[in-house]
Design a protein that fits this description.
The protein is an alpha+beta fold and about 280 residues long. Helices cover about 30% and strands about 25% of the residues. It is elongated.
């Protein structure tokens, strides 16, 4: 009785299995040789280890099971992490769009950045933050920093890829401002001065008599060549006016436009500077 013929596929299986076993045996022996030579301190084993890693690494990856692929807990953790990443990216994109539409950036060039570190808090709250943009991005010292709500502060230190920003409300930061019906003055930390404000509030000290009212918007007066402050940047809103009749010029409490405890996406303004010289004038007789 003739024996049944095996199909080519069936006949090839033992050969393929034998080849796999021989390959694994050879690789195992090679690994043992490298290990023994390394322990014995034989010369040239560094190059041998490198070559062995190149050859055996892919094989190890094929033979090693993927831990956690089918684990429901691992899959759930990965899905949650991915969802958190997507949500964070969406929040950042929305903040950047708000910054693009803010009055402070309208028609002005700026370098976008994110706050990556917060410095030690002073008597009125955080006084410095670090952003992830630096000199290689075009950031310079004494540039104004804003977000979608108004003035954040000014750049006081720069490295190639980061910069430190002194925040509005810092103890040694004073800003020339305009408030209400053209009242000029300066705004500083509410923790200093003749009248102390609530934590986080600023103090407005006028330099001339004028009318200040609750709700008046306080904006920057502007600096020479726009450095550090361009005119019209929102600083805050008057919340309280000192009614002391003996005061020559009444001070006022100001609520900052920006909550410096929740900073994320910001922009470093790049002043254009003047490009057209002023025409000379002639006085009348």
């Amino acid at each position: 009785m003739p024996r049944p013929r095996r199909s080519p596929r069936t006949a090839a299986r033992p050969l393929r299995s034998d080849r796999s076993r021989r390959l694994l045996t050879t690789l195992l022996l090679a690994t043992i040789v490298v290990l023994v030579a390394d322990l014995a301190g034989a010369p040239g084993t560094g190059a041998v280890r490198t070559a062995a890693g190149v050859v055996l690494g892919p094989v190890e990856g094929l033979l090693r099971p993927e831990v956690g692929r089918d684990d429901p807990g691992v899959r759930g953790t990965r899905a949650a992490t991915a969802a958190d990443t997507v949500a964070a990216q969406a929040t950042e994109a929305a903040a950047f769009q708000r910054l693009l539409r803010a009055p402070e950036t309208r028609g002005r060039a700026f370098v976008p950045a994110r706050v990556v570190a917060v410095g030690r808090a002073g008597s009125a709250g955080p006084e410095r933050v670090t952003i992830d943009a630096g000199s290689r991005d075009g950031v310079r010292i004494d540039r104004a920093v804003v977000n979608a709500d108004g003035l954040v502060g000014r750049v006081v230190a720069v490295s190639p890829w980061t910069a430190d920003v002194q925040l509005v409300g810092a103890a040694d930061l004073t800003i020339s401002v305009r408030a209400g019906a053209g009242v000029l003055g300066s705004v500083g930390s509410g923790a200093t001065g003749p009248r102390r404000q609530a934590p986080g509030e600023l103090t407005l000290t006028p330099v001339q008599r004028g009318t200040l009212s609750h709700g008046d918007v306080v904006t920057t007066l502007g600096s020479l060549d726009g450095t550090p402050y361009l005119p019209g940047l929102r600083v805050g809103t008057v919340t309280e006016v000192d009614g002391d009749p003996a005061a020559l010029v009444p001070t006022a409490g100001v609520r900052p436009a920006v909550d410096v405890t929740t900073l994320d996406v910001v922009g470093v303004l790049v002043p254009a500077g003047r490009t057209v010289p002023r025409a000379p004038s002639t006085g009348g007789g």
